[in-house]
Amino acid sequence: MKFFVEQVSHHPPIAAGIMESEHFRMEVFHEVKTRFTGNAVDAEPFSRTRITLKKSGTQYTFGGINSTCHCVLVGRMWLDVYGDIKIEEIGSNRVCNLSCTKCGWFSRGWHEVSGQQINGDGDVSFDIQGKWNESISATRRGKEPPKLLRPGQAKTFGEDEIPLDMSINEVPDFEIDTPTTLWTNVTKVCEEEPYCTWNMTEFARKLCHFDTNYAAILPPTDARLRKDRVALEEKDYSTAAKEKLALEEEQRRQRRIREIKGEEWKIVYFTKTTFPEIPDQDWYEFRNTYWQEREERKKKADEEMGGFVFEER
Q: Which of 37, 121, 127, 191 is deepest in the core (most CB within 10 A)?
């Protein structure tokens, strides 16, 4: 699986990214506006995601959702995600409407999500319910669906297994009025310092970590190479603060130079355009040049290091 993201704008902060495997391609841009309310930070996204299933060519698109980080100054920090998401199948009338409940008094409704899948005729095919941090299930509604013609026995999966390439034997039967689990959270909390201090998951830790030998093939702007981030990982908070300040001052200096020269910031690996199905929606197309440059850096580094072989990560 390949993943690449570029910060395509500093003010306002906007990131564009792409994730791709042999089964799917996910493209996303994420812009967020924040508001500090005293002891909490509200985040309102202006985002768009498009997922393409390679085997069928089917495409889905959806926007972002609101979130609030509570107790940022006093108390135990916690996150609330709430609002509505509309998942649309491009070129079809089929949609899935989801609603995340805003946390109420005594944690009432926290993490809860519910919704409906609407078929091409406008009828409800499934009710969706669950918690976005635990599991999601679907309940088929309406008339009895046609039975799937399976060439073999239906297959089940363990809690830690994720079927990325499902065959007809792995598709659930979805009995009428009977909930069927669609997704279960398999997040593992990292127990290694300092990541456990920050309540990071094992997945998040792996995103931060890299073999120092790989620094030669990473772009110089890779966030994992930032001195403030490295110092923070070593719990050297004083150095981290100084390096972050120095980085921001350098960014301001470069911006002043561009303003004096009348130059505009140039996006490196994406092209700003509009979303094909939503003309007034901004979009960022990946130019596909990064991976070629990476291969060239890898080849050069391999020659300089006397035959060192870089394994893909």
A: 127
